[in-house]
Every structure is written in C-alpha cells, then in structure tokens.
Amino acid sequence: MQKYWEFTQKNVFSELLSLLGRMTQENLNQQIEYLKVENEILRKRVGRSIRPTLVERRKLIKFGTLLGKYLKNIITVVTYETFLLWVRGYKRNKDPKK
After folding, report:
1. Are residues 73 and 37 both part of a single domain?
2. Is residue 43 located within the same domain as residue 70?
3. Mean pLDDT computed over 1-25
4. C-alpha Rg value of the chain to the nearest Å
C-alpha cells in the first residue's frame, strides 16, 4: 500500500508542476503579444527614425543576444542586421587583446 501511495503522489505532484508550467508559459505569451501590439502603436506615433543611445544599445544587446535567432521575429527598433552589427562591434571593442 505504501508503494502505491508514493507512486500516485509523484504523479499528482508531477501533473501539478506541469499545469503550473503551462499556465505560466501561457501568461508569458499573452504578455509578449500585448507588448508587441503596444510597441507597434507607439512606433507609429513616434515616427520613422529612432536612434538608440549607446546605453540603450547595450541594453538591447544584453537582452537581445539571449534570444538568439528568435530575436529576428520580434525586433522592431532597428533591423536584425543592424542589431548583429552592434553585437559584432560590441564584442570587438570589448576584446581585451585590442
């Protein structure tokens, strides 16, 4: 009987964690979709040209590089190619050999 209880308890715990994970992921996806719409609205009001400062570029590089190739689907401030140029330049200037 003890063995049966442990087995069932593990299944319930596993299912509960799985449910919480799905709920969290769904909520995060909804937040991202909202922020994408909000960003689109704000960009239309600001106009065509946004020139990030050096500090802003570093923030974008810090968080954008974590996304890897997935950034290409969501980046709006500059083109993905420009972002990659920023990353290369940042890495080149940060290189202690130079």
Report:
1. no
2. no
3. 70
4. 22
DSSP codes joined into one string, the chain: -HHHHHHHHHHHHHHHHHHHHHHHHHHHHHHHHHHHHHHHHHHHHH-S-----HHHHHHHHHHHHHHGGGGGGT--SS-HHHHHHHHHHHHHHH-TT-
Residue type, 83: F
For residue range 48-82, list pLDDT tens digits in order. 778 899 999 999 999 999 999 989 988 888 889 99
Kindly tell me the burial class for residue 57, based on how many C-beta atoms sit within 10 Å of its own C-beta (0-12, 13-18, 19 or more): buried
Residues 6+ apart with CB under 8 A from 50: 43, 77, 78
pTM check: above 0.70? no
